[in-house]
Specification:
It comes from Sporobacter termitidis DSM 10068. Its main location: membrane. It is found in: Cell membrane. Belongs to the AzlC family. This protein is an all-alpha fold and 234 residues long. The protein has two domains: 162 residues, no CATH class; 53 residues, no CATH class. Helix content is 73%, strand content 0%. It contains 13 helices and no strands. Helix 2 runs parallel beside helix 9 and helix 3 runs antiparallel to helix 9. The radius of gyration is 19 Å and the shape is globular. The relative contact order is 0.16. The mean pLDDT is 82.
Length: 234
């Protein structure tokens, strides 16, 4: 019990930025679900079981249109395909996680990935427990925000346009934090360049997958030069 308490206390401070972002973005999602006629219970289940912010937003359209399972499947794959790259990079990290492994895989999202890869638990804290609580806390924040939004949406009507920018702001904060803590900025610069080039070539609707592939290809090609200082997910 003491071991778990120490891991939780170590994990919580690293997730505070996620708490802020997920709460507001979750509220926006809950309000959106409410505006489409879905009660708090459905919002809670979606966030608890699906736990994929962007896919959940996209799913609102699928839920309110003619049922097309193939289209819904393809949409989900396109929106969340980036998780394939996260999963591959975490194979060694989660390899010996034991009973926590399945939940760590399920709960892996953009923000959790960033924290697990960049944050180092204090000496004496079990790393797998630390990762588990980071994942659990992030999951809880999203569910909490969604439920709050569902409750508010049932009683209050207001314009939520632009509220989803919270997630973009969160990514910027995490990126800047990693930039300040790492000496080698080459991987970050290469990632930005690849993403910008793909945005210009493919447009905002289709650039994510090509950008991911380009980043993986470039970093793989330069791995020997970058490996000495590139932070690894432990």
């Amino acid at each position: 019990m003491k071991e778990k308490k120490s891991a939780l206390q170590a994990a919580f401070p690293t997730t505070i930025p996620v708490l802020t972002g997920f709460t507001f973005l979750g509220i926006a999602y809950g309000i959106l679900m409410s505006s489409k006629g879905y009660g708090v219970g459905w919002t809670f289940l979606m966030s608890l079981v699906v736990f994929a912010g962007s896919a959940q937003y996209a799913a609102v359209t699928a839920l309110t249109s003619v049922f097309n399972p193939l289209s819904a499947l393809l949409l989900t794959l396109v929106v969340n395909a980036r998780h394939l790259f996260y999963g591959v990079s975490m194979l060694d990290t989660y390899k010996n996680a034991g009973k926590y492994k399945l939940y760590l895989i399920f709960g892996l999202c953009d923000e959790t990935f960033s924290i697990v890869c960049s944050a180092e638990p204090p000496e004496g804290v079990n790393r797998h427990l630390f990762m588990f609580f980071v994942t659990l806390l992030d999951h809880f924040y999203w569910v909490l925000g969604s439920v709050l939004g569902g409750v508010l949406g049932a009683f209050i009507s207001f314009n939520i346009k632009g509220l989803d920018f919270v997630l973009t702001a969160l990514f910027v904060v995490i990126f800047l934090g990693q930039w300040q803590t790492q000496k080698n900025h080459a991987p970050a610069v290469l990632g930005v360049v690849c993403a910008a080039a793909c945005l210009l070539l493919f447009g905002p609707e289709r650039f994510i997958i090509p950008a991911m592939l380009a980043i993986v290809a470039v970093l793989s090609a330069l791995r020997k030069k970058l490996t000495p200082e590139v932070p690894q997910c432990r």
